[in-house]
Amino acid sequence: MLAVLVSIVSLGIVAQQCQAIVIYTGWERHALVGSDIRLSCSFFSWRWTSEEVTFSWTYRPDGSRDSISIFHYTGGEAYLDNKGPFKDRLEFVGNPGRRDGSILIKNLDFNDNGTFTCDAKNPPDIVGRPSSVRLLVFEKVPIQAGVITGAIIGVVLGLLVLVVVIYYLMRFLVARRVFSLNVSKHGKKKKEGSQQRQGPAPPADPSKVKAAASEKKKQESRKDKK
Amino acid sequence: MLVLGGIIFLHVSTIILLLVATIDNAWWVTDTVSTDLWGTWEFQSSEWHYFNLKTSPNEFHQSVQASAVLACIFSILALFVFVAQLFTLPKGQRFTFTGILQLISCLCVMIAASVYTAELHGEKGGYGHAYILAWISFVLTFLLALTYLILRKKSE
């Protein structure tokens, strides 16, 4: 009994020590030249959010191998880039108490293409892997992947459904008219009358005529079988 | 019965080929790159990494995607309609609806593969197995469509 308790407790302690802090950013962000973009960063940790939680952002331009640090939050204070490429363009819009370390970059330029890495530490939980988000700056918003695809698929399927519905509707309507003609034997006079009425009417669709003809054939074949 | 089983088997295998061609990423293959309709696998620093299509998928790419998906959808629809028509069709009649759906599927595969061939060349390398499967399924869907349009339901 005691051995079981001890093993459970030790498992718990070991499990806690094995947990690491997990950092979440986006994967890729797209933005227009001259616009602002908010790069979000949050983390998951088994510990309570401590007072000494820190966030830091580093930037690596596309095609370069060096990173430069552009933002650091520690001890309740946010320190923004005041010498580097983002001078006067950064703003801290996160909420460290809520584990949010997002930054806002204003007035984007083509030189801002690159990878932004967020590293968060929640003492004593400091073991974790920084997460990166890639920023792509465009002149005009490209057609999002999948919009045209979805449109083509939707239109074709819609047309198919429409054609099927119209086809069955036509058959149903024609069937009703034929049905009302051959209601009973003494309705033969009715049949002739309505046929005369139908005479001068313009021949509607060849499909309607075909459908009517096939319906009549079917009825005849049924009568023959009987 | 044998004919029926054979046709259904052929149809199901055609659907499988179409799905593999659409989903598997090997339309254009080089030594380090393997591209398909949806993304690219690149071999960088001894590991394969998956990227979205780089030049933001232009209209041709998206139309190829749409045609390939539509071909799969129509072929699957044709299978269901065939099974339904097996029970509801009057004897001696042809499976026209099934044949038409399968023909549209064949058309879509042809559009997808042709547009891909015409527009989306890489620099070097060759066409991958998913591309070849697309053309094979084009032939199969065409044959199946002809079969459905010619076949008549057994009459007494």
TrEMBL record, chain A:
Domain Ig-like as annotated: residue spans: 34-134
TM helices/strands, residue ranges: 143-169
Gene3D superfamilies assigned: Immunoglobulins (2.60.40.10)
Residues covered by region (Disordered): 185-226
Membrane topology: Single-pass type I membrane protein
PROSITE patterns: IG_LIKE (PS50835)
Localization annotation: Membrane
Annotated GO CC locations: myelin sheath; plasma membrane
Pfam families (UniProt xref): V-set
InterPro entries for the chain: Ig-like_dom (IPR007110), Ig-like_dom_sf (IPR036179), Ig-like_fold (IPR013783), Ig_sub (IPR003599), Ig_V-set (IPR013106), Myelin_P0-rel (IPR000920)
Name of the protein in its database record: Myelin protein zero
UniProtKB/TrEMBL annotation, chain B:
Recorded family membership: Belongs to the PMP-22/EMP/MP20 family.
Segments traversing the membrane: 7-28, 66-87, 99-118, 130-151
UniProt subcellular location: Membrane
Lineage start: Eukaryota, Metazoa, Chordata, Craniata, Vertebrata
Gene3D superfamilies registered for this protein in UniProt: 1.20.140.150
Membrane topology note: Multi-pass membrane protein
Keyword match Membrane: yes
The name this protein goes by in its record: Epithelial membrane protein 1
Annotated GO CC locations: plasma membrane
Keywords: Glycoprotein, Membrane, Transmembrane, Transmembrane helix
Entry keyword annotation includes Transferase: no
InterPro entries noted in UniProt: PMP-22/EMP/MP20-like (IPR050579), PMP22/EMP/MP20/Claudin (IPR004031)
